Amino acid sequence: MIIGTGIDLVDIPRFERTVERTPKLLPRLFTPAEQTLRLSSLAARYAAKEALIKTLGGSDGVHWTEIEIASAASGAPHFVLSGSTAAAVQAKGITKLHLTLTHDAGFAAAFVVAEGEPL
User: Fold this and answer.
1) CB of 4 within 8 A of CB of 95?
2) Which of 117, 81, 113, 110 is nearest to 98 (CA)?
3) Tens digit of pLDDT for each residue in 12-42?
């Protein structure tokens, strides 16, 4: 059963300007592994984290660095959750998260679908 969906869109040039002005954002928003990526990829991961928060219906118990977007061997993105964020997802009865990312023409977007059984 689908428990929730979320979508987010990021203006990549605006995201890049924000990061250049405030470099301390990177460790607050991204895991060390994510911080090694290009800014366009980080913009897509930021969109994914925002989309996940929308899927959950809010940010209670969610921490940015407890959400990592990793890539499977096939290149498909997926969430790696830890701490209170993993607990918040589990508390909603979510057993599977589907994620898709894209970036083109100066925008990055993410779409999330949460499956499970509501508690």
Assistant:
1) no
2) 113
3) 999 999 999 999 999 999 999 999 999 999 9
Determine the residue type at 56: L
**Ramachandran angles phi, psi of 54, nearest 5°:** -65, -40
Alpha helices (H) along the chain: 12-21, 25-29, 39-56, 83-91
User: What is the identity of the amino acid at 106?
Assistant: G
Q: What is the end-to-end Cα distance of the chain in Å, rounded? A: 12
Contact 91, 72 (CB under 8 A): no
30 phi/psi in degrees, rounded to 5: -130, 150
Question: Hey, how many other C-beta atoms are within 10 angstroms of the C-beta on 17?
Answer: 11
Reported pTM: 0.94
